[in-house]
Amino acid sequence: MRVLAAMSGGVDSAVAAARAVEAGHDVTGVHLALSAKPGTLRKGARGCCTVEDSRDARRAADMLGIPFYVWDFAERFNEEVIETFVGEYAAGRTPNPCMTCNEKIKFEALLEKAVALGFDAVSTGHYARLSHESGVPELRRSRDESKDQSYVLASLTPQQLRHAMFPLGDSLKSEVREEAERRDLAVARKPDSHDICFIPDGDTRSFLESRLGQRPGDMVDADSGEVLAQHSGVHGFTVGQRKGLGIDKPAADGRPRYVLSLEPVSGTVTVGSADRLGVTEIEATRPVWPSERALDGPTECVAQIRAHGETGRAVAEMTEDGFRVRLHEPMRGVAPGQSVVLYRPEDEGDLVLGSAKISATR
Fold it and tell me: pTM of the entire structure?
């Protein structure tokens, strides 16, 4: 098979490319340039999308003896990922930019170009598995539960999965690093990528304020309706947030306050005690079914709402524009804009049924 290996400059994608070569595929490496101004992306050899990452990817490709190219996806990345991220926060929602990047850049823009150029598959260093027992590729959790990335891949379509390869799905991270050392890859001990690549200093609030400006509003107590403070914009907060609220007055009961909801039109941030954070019902829209297994009536499942967050048993059923999830036990920190991913509870809940964007909670 002709395989295009997406090489971020980190250890995972380098070993994934090496395994594709070892399997006998005709492999070409490609690094995605995601910024017209690379200096605006995070620095420090983190393994994602900086100039130094591009150089590390090229060195790995040279070691593997495969052709290597850099493709400029900066304009599309800005439009599909950064602008979407800013717009979602402005609307009072909490997006996952890595999930958007996987969906729109790595498995839409990249795959479209790869197929047009005659490649059969795109290989990445994601920790996830593909199985074919049902006759179609089905997305499953990786063997390494601590590194599992099936959540951020759950927005991929069956057609995209047919052209996907995840060579690391059955490996532990420690095994991948050991293999990189055996192969003399310079990235063997390179730190993993963390946080958001297009926010170099990690200050999301300042980044959003630079794009959206200040949009002052009230911070209101959920119980009393009292205005506790003023803030510069709902985009500076997420549901479940405890720190950085800017409230000087302690709660009457002395317990910490958390963000309970955001109202972008009025600019109201509502806060309250932790016991108000529990969510038992989730409404989600724009569903994607990677396994081609849409829900057939009320279905027992395992729900996950963050990339490495807790999971909960639930019952999901279709609605007019998505699906509804009723959790058996309350979950905290569930916010509109996040994705909810459903797993089949059999086989230890490792098969992805579907995903959708959270639109409302109760």
Answer: 0.93
